[in-house]
Specification:
Elements (H helix, E strand, L loop, with lengths): L15 E4 L8 E11 L6 E4 L4 E3 L6 E12 L4 E11 L4 E3 L4 E2 L4 E11 L5 E12 L12 E15 L2 E12 L4 E2 L6 E2 L1 E11 L8
Parallel strand pairs: 3-7
Antiparallel strand pairs: 1-2, 2-5, 3-4, 5-6, 6-9, 7-8, 9-10, 10-11, 11-12, 12-15, 13-14
Length: about 210
């Protein structure tokens, strides 16, 4: 891949990765994925330990991410899913006197899902997500070591072969006021979202 979370690559380095799909039993699946590559911008300005900017070309600090997804179908109606992530590698400050970078930043996250489908037209689902941006690198937060927690409840009904309707409630929480209601308001520690969706499904086989 050319890069992460961007449309135009920010340097000449490439990211590499692999994924492995395991099915120990008919009900259990395990999918580990590993990504790595130099992702610091070429010729970017780094922050020195003294607080000043210096031009650096850091292609040696490789970013690493491990992602593991575990799924378990308890019955034909009840299923569970767990997803864990750990990332590290970027070095955000530079000491020109010793020509060394700061220690690698890191972040981690976890999500757990449960889904129940009483029939072939309806299902309900609940999801919990946790994310820690240990060094405030991924979220660019001004607060130290931000923790994010999210709970989501979903109901979906199939109206027809190609039409679904979905109702979802979500609550986001943090120990710091990181959520902005508007540009002019102060941040808040939690926010609530309700969404109602009408989903039209397309299938290439219908074009025949």
């Amino acid at each position: 891949m050319n890069g992460w979370n961007n449309v135009v690559d920010n340097n000449s380095g490439k990211t590499f990765g692999f994924s492995l799909a395991l099915t120990p039993t008919k009900k259990l699946s395990i999918i580990p994925t590993y990504l790595t590559g130099p992702e610091a911008p070429t010729g970017a300005f780094g922050l020195t330990t003294a607080g000043s900017l210096v031009s650096v070309n850091n292609t040696k600090a490789w970013r690493h991410t491990v992602d593991v997804v575990v799924g378990y179908n308890a019955t034909s109606k009840l299923s569970f899913l767990a997803n864990g992530d750990y990332g590290r590698g970027d070095k955000t400050s530079f000491d020109p006197t010793t020509n060394t970078f700061s220690p690698s930043v890191w972040w981690t996250g976890f999500a757990g899902y449960v889904k129940y489908a009483p029939d072939d037209k309806d299902y309900v689902a609940a999801r919990y997500e946790y994310y820690e941006d240990h060094d405030d690198f991924m979220t660019a937060s001004v607060f130290p070591r931000v923790h994010f927690n999210t709970i989501t409840a979903t109901y979906q009904r199939t109206i027809s072969t190609h039409l679904l309707t979905r109702l979802e409630y979500r609550r986001d929480m943090s120990q710091f006021p990181v959520y902005q209601l508007s540009t002019f308001s102060q941040g808040i520690k939690h926010q609530d979202t309700v969404a109602i969706g009408l989903i039209l499904l397309f299938d290439s086989r219908d074009a025949k």
